[in-house]
Amino acid sequence: MKNFFLLAFIFSIFISCHRDYDKNADAETLPAITQSGARTGGAIVNGKVWVASKNDVGTANGMGTYCQQIKDKTYIRVDLRGINDQSRIWIKVEIDDLELNKTYSIAPNNSINDNVITYSTTNDDVYFNVKNDCKLKITRLDLDQRIVSGTFELKLQKYPTDDTVDITEGRFDRRFD
Fold it and tell me: Which residues of 68-99 are buried (b: 16+ CB within 10 A; e: fewer)?
């Protein structure tokens, strides 16, 4: 019987240590712009605050946040999921000779293998960078610590319609999933 209580006690401690990063998150205020791997992200989407979940997404099927450098190319994938719903900002880019703190203009998609930037909503509406350049600045990329931080501004279009979404004051400070 003592073993049962001991196991129950250990199990309760284990369960209480589970990380739910979003538990005390403020969904009404943009997170600060940081470079410490704080797992934050957010933006102003059509004039309203949008905050990303701090929880890991996982890297299955090309999802999640991940970066790598191969020779002079840097591959960056930032996957931000809404804290209050299933909305998502997804940025996948290849940058030649990456310079930190330089603002890059990400040209519209030409094929599935090119840079892909999307915003999707809970209504299954998906917006792409089909007409407008998007701005992206990487402020920290630390492959050893597995941290990528930066800022972004996006104007995306719901293809094939002319509906657009404006995303400003975007920021992320993520650890790789």
Answer: eeeeeebebbbbbbbbeeebbbbbbbebeebe
